[in-house]
Amino acid sequence: MGALRRRDRSEQIFRLQYRSKTGPEAKPTLPSPAHIPTVTRVCLIGEDGVNLQYELLSRETSRDALATYDLERPFENALAVRTVSVGAAVSLLNDLQWYLTRFVDECLVQEPSIDDEEWLSRQLAEQLRNGDIDPDTTGEFCKVYGLETPASREDESDGTDTPPHSETDGGGESDGGSRRTRPTGPEADSADDPEGSNTERTVTTAFGPKELVEPLYVRRIDGDLPEYDLRDVEETLVVRLTESEFTR
Prior knowledge:
- The structure is a single chain.
- The chain is built from eight helices and eight strands.
- The chain is of the alpha+beta class and 248 residues long.
- It has one domain.
- An eight-stranded mixed sheet has the order 2-7-6-8-5-4-1-3.
- β4 (104-110) and β5 (119-121) form a beta hairpin.
- α4 (86-95) packs across α6 (122-130).
- The longest helix has 21 residues, at 2-22.
- The termini are far apart.
- The relative contact order is 0.19.
């Protein structure tokens, strides 16, 4: 009996000595969820009758400004990129100013810290970047676009022949038959790359991208926006405005 007790005592001492060397027993932990960074988006809506993708990717300066971004087409005749902040978004728009005045109807910025569905006008994004407006007060003045399937794709669904649509380059008569304008101004010599190698970019396109139509200017009251009633549409897009944009 005495020998058995001495052996049990020796085993206990051995366990204590082993733990003191190896440290306390590790407790199982759950892996931390992957961090998903939020990004600011910039979306350019092309003028009517302009193939925006071609115009921006066929010119050296604008093509270089967009070279580091993954291009998207969330709406018909639109081009969007993801940036790191509102400041970076405003800087990109400033870099593209020469082209925006000629080929772009509207510049939109989406900042997830403000709202992950609604967009900001360029002027409102600039005020936000400069600290001229509180983020919590950006939602009062808005315009609401209806979203419709372009008539060219409705014709396709009816069996009507339409020109083929390319998503991999900036040239041609693609994008719903938009016309291809000849380059003018300081970019005339660098446009129309004869080899086509510099204009070929993959553009991620939303499934059946819809067209922005007929904006309705509204004011948010008690947190709610009036219903869009200019057309019978299933979806809408909200753009927040500055007060001066709303009243002019």
